[in-house]
Design a protein that fits this description.
Blueprint: H1 10-33, H2 46-59, H3 68-89
Length: 114
C-alpha cells in the first residue's frame, strides 16, 4: 500500500523548520532581556506554531494550495523544531530551597590535594 505523496515543497518544509528555530531564539532572547533564565519546558503552543506555519505558506505563495492535513503536519514540525532548539539552549534550573538535587559526580570539580 502506497502512502499518499505530500505536495508540500521542500522549500516550505525548510522554511517551517527555520521558523521553529527562530521562534525558540525569539523566546530565549525575550526572557534574557527581562533578566529571566531560559529554563524549563518549551513555552510555545501548537496554536502559535500554526500561525507561524500559515505565515510561511503565505510567504511561499502556498497558502491556498496547502491542505489542512499539511498545515497540521507542518505545525507539528515547527513546534518540534522550536522545542528542540529551546531545550538545547536551556539553562539548568536552580534547586528550590530545601529541594534535593541529584548530582552527577562526574560533573563535580576535582579538588587539588595539598
Amino acid at each position: 500500500m502506497n502512502a499518499p505523496k505530500s505536495t508540500t515543497s521542500a522549500a516550505l518544509e525548510r522554511a517551517v523548520e527555520a521558523a521553529g528555530h527562530a521562534w525558540a531564539i525569539e523566546w530565549a532572547d525575550a526572557l534574557r532581556r527581562e533578566g529571566r533564565a531560559v529554563a524549563g519546558g518549551w513555552p510555545g503552543t501548537l496554536s502559535e506554531a500554526r500561525v507561524r506555519v500559515v505565515a510561511c505558506a503565505r510567504q511561499a505563495g502556498r497558502q491556498r494550495t496547502t491542505t489542512h492535513a499539511e498545515i497540521e503536519r507542518l505545525t507539528k514540525k515547527a513546534y518540534e523544531a522550536a522545542r528542540t532548539s529551546w531545550l538545547s539552549r536551556c539553562e539548568p534550573e536552580p534547586a528550590e530551597p530545601g529541594e534535593s538535587r541529584h548530582l552527577d559526580l562526574d560533573d563535580e570539580p576535582l579538588l587539588e590535594e595539598t
